[in-house]
Design brief:
heterodimer; A: alpha+beta; MetI-like fold; two-stranded antiparallel sheet; 8 strands; 66% helix; flat; B: alpha/beta; two-stranded parallel sheet; 14 helices; 13 strands; 14% strand
């Protein structure tokens, strides 16, 4: 056989060709970027991370002061992103489970309610929903001078929710100062809009994934379990759910990663997540490439980590074929 | 001794110019206009690849504009852009292309503006941009401040606040992507005011949040506060504006790094407007002034040739600016000063002669 007709040779040659084209493209892009940056007199590097950030962050889980460094500002933004992602994922999973059960009920009212919810939240854009919740809090609630006070120490105002907080000295009640309530726990309208908006949106998808998983297990499985004399609860826990989980987990991984990525929409309601910090950093320093690079790296890392964790869990619940 | 030798120099130049002037007069323009005209009107072509050449090729100057900032840049009800920053761009268009309307405006957010300039989407950024070191060192060149501003708080008059110390613990609406953010943090931190920032990505959301009661105060450039108060509040007297600190904020049109000629042109376009005010030349009397014997006026208006050519422009470049756009005083009064809705005092923006910071550089 002629050497270029050899299938093995062809396969390797094609791979090499594709790889070198790709590497060439990357090299060209890098060189071009460097040349353009130099031409425009832009400095490149991550030195700026060690400088004082100087800009404010409106609320954060980690403590932050404008005298802190840019890298800490990033960390604080990341903290907010992870916080909102985790609580939204938990809330949406619980809500989603409830939705799935609702839609599998025989009661037409329950079924109808579940279906309406899913169709409504799944078929409107998330940005619109976030803006809706934000407007509901800031325009719908009364001004700080005449707050709704349903329970002692609980105030609903256009500036968010003020709640009593647990502290070492017992309950810390919010007290009205000249301009704001001081003390207690304040859930800002930005946070409330993000939490509600993301949770309710994600719950619609998660509900459908769970329902789909449960429906996908052949009806005969449940019938067989009941015929064997298992109680309905046992049939659910020992037969139905273990088989459904195999189907549910892979799309759930995507949903959790989606929640993480959708949290960047915080920008529209002004919740200071990591993309918000990145945008501000770029504007204050002009280091656009570096800022976006860090943002991409962070999201990539978290997404991959989520994926790996979910895959491990999936392997545990997977069908064991012996 | 020195004075005499300078006068001699001027006399010599004047002789030359009279010849050039006569030539121009007897040329194309002789037919109808008895008024003198600037020496030569041939526009030299810019060097290939330069910003000047690009602008000449396109036939318009592309400028960054604000999304909504009455007095500085805002389209009127017919869609015609007006404002102090807009007139800066129109002055450049008048100088470079001979027509103030050969300018296009790209509305940009605070976040987009520097990138738009650096990447060449716009040729000039006259958009209430504060001259800071970090920005200057990072890819743009600042020309001359065309407006000295300060950072202010606007609060409801009913709170009785008149200085930053009066608003301890207040919620403050802040727009991200601006130097205001940094000033806000500095003021709050230095004076231990414990101010609560409510941060927004766009201008209108920030203002709306303030008026709806989400915040007690709005912080931004005082010029914008005046503009917002004049145009967006139900009753302007319900709000007071006071300075956040004692620093002047030089709002400065910027150009890209790497094109010195364009940098020079924009600097001197602004200087021409300052100098015109200094010399008493207005859009109304500029034609009259062409007949002036004053050498400074003759140089500025291009009756004496050479100054336009040095910049790579037509000799009548400054004449066109003043005729079409006006001198700095006219531009100020019309857009933000006494003839506008904003009625901002000239203050720091007076000529140095009158006690302000606007210094006319020697036009020679």
């Amino acid at each position: 056989m002629v050497w270029w007709r050899d299938q093995k040779f062809r396969a390797i040659a094609l791979q090499l060709l594709a790889a070198s084209a790709f590497i060439g493209l990357i090299l060209w892009l890098t060189g071009n970027t460097a040349a353009n940056l130099a031409k425009r007199g832009l400095t490149v590097g991550f030195d700026f991370l060690g400088r004082a950030a100087r800009f404010p962050i409106s609320e954060s889980i980690l403590s932050y002061s404008p005298t802190d460094h840019f890298w800490w500002a990033y960390t604080v933004g990341l903290g907010n992103t992870l916080f909102i992602t985790v609580i939204v994922a938990l809330t949406a999973t619980v809500l989603g489970l409830m939705l799935a059960i609702l839609r599998r009920e025989d009661n037409p009212l329950a079924q109808g309610a579940g279906t309406t919810y899913v169709e409504f939240f799944r078929n409107t854009p998330l940005v619109v929903q976030l803006l809706f919740w934000y407007a509901l809090v800031t325009v719908g609630l009364p001004s700080i001078d005449a707050p709704l006070n349903p329970l002692p120490g609980v105030y609903l105002t256009e500036r968010g929710l003020y709640l009593p907080a647990l502290s070492l000295n017992g309950l810390d009640m919010p007290v009205r100062a000249k301009f704001n309530f001081e003390g207690g726990l304040n859930l800002s309208p930005e946070f409330v809009a993000m939490y509600l908006g993301l949770s309710l949106y994600a719950a619609a998808f998660i509900g459908e994934i769970i329902r789909g998983g449960l429906e996908a297990v052949a009806k005969g499985q449940t019938e067989a379990a009941l015929a064997l004399g298992l109680a309905p609860k046992q049939a659910l826990n020992l037969v139905l759910i273990p088989q459904a989980l195999r189907i549910i987990i892979p799309p759930m991984t995507s949903q959790y990663i989606n929640i993480l990525k959708n949290s960047t929409l915080a920008l529209v309601v002004g919740y200071p997540d990591i993309s918000f910090v990145t945008a501000t950093t770029i504007n204050q320093t002009g280091q656009a490439l570096e800022g976006i690079f860090i943002l991409m790296l962070v999201f990539f890392t978290i997404s991959i980590a989520t994926s790996v964790a979910m895959n491990l869990y999936n392997a545990r619940v997977a069908l064991k074929v012996r | 001794m020195r004075l005499i030798s300078r006068q001699n120099d001027l006399m010599g130049r004047r002789g030359l110019v009279i010849i050039g002037f006569a030539a121009a007069l007897s040329g194309a323009l002789a037919a109808c206009s008895p008024a003198p005209k600037p020496a030569s009107n041939a526009a030299p072509a810019g060097k290939a690849g330069s910003t000047l050449a690009t602008v000449q090729k396109h036939g318009y100057v592309s400028c960054g504009a604000s999304q909504a900032n009455a007095g500085f840049s805002l389209p009127d009800d017919k869609g015609y852009w007006r404002g102090l920053d807009i007139d800066m761009c129109r002055a450049v268009a008048a100088a470079v292309l001979g027509d103030q309307d050969k300018a296009r405006f790209v509305p940009l957010t605070g976040q987009q503006r520097l990138t738009a300039l650096q990447t060449g989407e716009i040729d000039l950024l006259p958009r209430t941009t504060t001259w800071t070191m970090a920005r200057d060192a990072n890819g743009v060149n600042f020309t001359f401040p065309n407006y000295y501003d300060y950072t202010g708080f606007m609060v409801r008059a009913s709170t009785g606040a008149t200085k930053p110390a009066d608003i301890k613990g207040a919620s403050v609406c802040v727009q991200t992507g601006s130097i205001t953010e940094v000033i806000f943090a500095d003021v709050s931190w230095r004076q231990k005011l414990d101010l609560k920032p409510v941060i927004f990505d766009n201008v209108s959301a920030t203002r709306q949040a303030f008026f709806s009661g989400r915040c007690d105060a709005l912080i931004t450039d005082a010029s914008s506060l005046y503009s917002v108060r004049a145009t967006q509040s139900k009753n302007p007297d319900d709000y007071v504006i006071f300075a956040a600190n004692d620093e002047a904020n030089p709002l400065t049109p910027a150009v890209r790094h790497g094109d010195d000629q364009w940098f020079d042109i924009v600097k001197w376009v602004f200087q021409a407007q300052i100098t015109a005010e200094y010399l008493g030349i207005t859009s109304a009397n500029v034609d009259e002034m062409l007949k002036s014997e004053d050498p400074a006026i003759r140089r500025l208006l291009g009756v004496e040739a050479g100054y336009g050519k040095a910049l790579g422009l037509r000799e009548d470049w400054a004449y066109q600016i003043i005729k079409q756009v006006g001198n700095y005083g006219e531009v100020y009064d019309r857009n933000v000063g006494k003839d506008s809705k904003l009625k901002i005092e000239r203050g720091l923006n007076r000529l140095q002669r009158d006690g302000g910071l606007m210094v006319p550089l020697p036009f020679s």
